[in-house]
Amino acid sequence: MTALDRLTRGSRTVALSVAVGLLAGLAAAALEGGLDLAVPRLVGRYGDPGGPHLFRPAALLLFPVLGGVVSGVLLGVFRPQGERRSTEAVIRAFHHEDGRLALVPAAVFALASVAVIACGGSVGPEGPIAGLGAALGSAFVGLFRPTARERRLFLLAGCAGGVGAIFRTPLGGALFAAEIPYRQPGFESDSLFPGIVVSVVAYATFTGLLGYDEPLLRGTGGLAFAHPLELLAYALLGVVCAGAAFLLRASLRSVTALARRARLPRWLAPAAGGLLVGAIALVVPQVMDARYQFVQGALDGTLFHAGARHTWLGWAALFGLVVAAKCLATGCTVGTGNAGGMIGPAVFIGGATGAALGALLEAALPGTIPEGLRQALVPVGMAGVLAASLRAPLASIVMVTEMTGSYGLIVPLMLVSAVAYRLGGRFGLNEEQLASAAESPAHAGEAIVKRLSAWKVGDLADRSWPHVVAPGASLPELVAALAPGTRPTFAVVEGGRLQGLISTGDIARAVELCDPQAPAVAADVMTRSPRVVRADDDLLGTLKLFLAHKVDVLPVVGEDGAEFLGVLDRATILGALQRRAETERDHLIREHAGLRAIAQEQELESLLVGLPATRRRTVQRLPVPGEAAGRSLREADFRRRYACEVIAIETAAGELITPPDPGRPLGADETLIVLPSRPAKEEPPRTPAGAPAGAPDG
Prior knowledge:
Layout: H1 3-41, H2 63-78, H3 86-96, H4 103-118, H5 126-141, H6 148-166, H7 170-179, H8 192-210, H9 230-262, H10 269-283, H11 293-300, H12 302-306, H13 312-335, H14 343-364, H15 371-390, H16 393-404, H17 410-424, H18 446-454, H19 457-460, E1 468-469, H20 475-480, E2 490-494, E3 497-502, H21 504-513, H22 522-525, E4 527-528, E5 533-534, H23 539-549, E6 553-557, E7 564-569, H24 570-591, H25 596-608, H26 613-616, E8 620-623, H27 633-636, H28 638-642, E9 644-650, E10 656-657, E11 671-676
Parallel strand pairs: 1-2, 5-6
Antiparallel strand pairs: 2-3, 3-4, 6-7, 8-11, 9-10, 9-11
Helix pairs in contact: 1-4, 1-5, 1-6, 1-8, 2-4, 2-10, 3-5, 3-6, 4-5, 5-6, 6-7, 6-8, 7-8, 7-16, 9-13, 9-14, 9-15, 9-17, 10-13, 11-14, 11-15, 13-14, 14-15, 15-16, 15-17, 16-17
């Protein structure tokens, strides 16, 4: 790839990123604006769900039902049956669908989530905007004939823009989108650059339209890690956060299973889920808090002043009740098919979990828990549950730091996120995540692609190409140079500069039209201005030229485009890949001895490929007979004595020797791969006395 090609590709990436970021920011602003209008006019009319008091008016029972009906109707009409939740759909599109994510279903899902949240459903807007941003990225870049890889990258970049804008976490959004495809720690590193650009532009667009609001939690700027002994409390918090992630996952799966058994109509199931949420909210109204007011009150203490005079043990019980109720309400909302995301509920549950542990520690060790530590457990708990539920520990650390401004808590954030992820990552919410990039179809053949991108044409070019002629070479000379069974391509070179190429087809046509009185020369036959490659071009792009121009060789020239350096043969590239694969295979077997068994089976299969299937089934492994140890196959007269034909010898180190050397002494710890000399229908070869029978090697 030339410098101009790299500049063009980089400019294209930046331009597309800016456009996708603008679209994602506008979408996030529209979603947030809709919530700002709808929430106060619906569920917000019946009191503040962020307060400490339990029990609310019976009218709350019907609001989630209304949201469920709207959600059920919208999703039933506009989203395909079996369509996954937003982040699950994004990850599936990345791994299995070449980055294609339909825009209309994603937009309808985001719209329906506004209705669900405004009516008190226990979901958040972050998941829907992640899906909508991803769909915008996929659809917009699709207008410019992208490669599958490019579409995948902008799918993740659009997701980063949506999350970065709605959470006001531009860096966290980029890391979230890059980390979320996998269960194990890993990144889609190629998506980071477009993801950062998209997230920054989306964040700037969002805040430019709605204004820069205060962080998600206020009053965390002064909190900081103060003493090593605090790590004990934080480590305990990591364990508790893993338990909260398990409870959230169990609630979701249980309700989902019950909804499937109930077999309610698709439009009715969300309403039934809303009814269950309303029933929970009658007792624990805090489950309807989509703005983290309850968690904020636990952090700054306003919750304690507004409530009854509880003991710390009573507050711990209240926070624990809210955590359990929120998990169940979230399961009832999402598990019955309502629109909405689970990132917001996970953040809320994490904050309440941290508040519960702080109150419990204060009750158990009165006067020994600093107020700063008890407050810090709230934002740190957010990161813990988020890391376990999303299986994205690094993104969770950065997101919570940006959301809350708690930069002084980076050490406990790291510890709690790591512990919670390690213990609770198995309870993650996203079923579409794969273990690692090695399992993703999106990375099939990636090692070969990266190798070809790194290799240069000059590395494999034949600089002593034998078929080089001068422009004045006669046609008979060219014909004489055609060896039987070959189809060489002649490079016409004069003064070290390429003049043209001559294929065997060119020679054949020239012979047919040749005038005996004026024989043609190379300059008359050659193809002028042939397609060339430069020595610093990468092989991946060069292979596309082979395919596009249907040629087997390409001349290699210098930077001026004319100096002849040699020729690149397509077969040379294949040979280099095969040699590299064999080298890596040898290294792999040396590093991982257990893989030798697979290599042996491959060698044996290739050895038997010419045998009929009936004879393949008679192949046996036999240990070297005691009387043959130290003797060669010839000396032991093995074929006649045991009615077997030895086709390979397996050494003690696991190496297959094939064909076997009849004069090589046999080791007592070696194994013989044998075929019976008699037809398969006769009795099998005699097992040497005292040796275990070999199992058929089918």
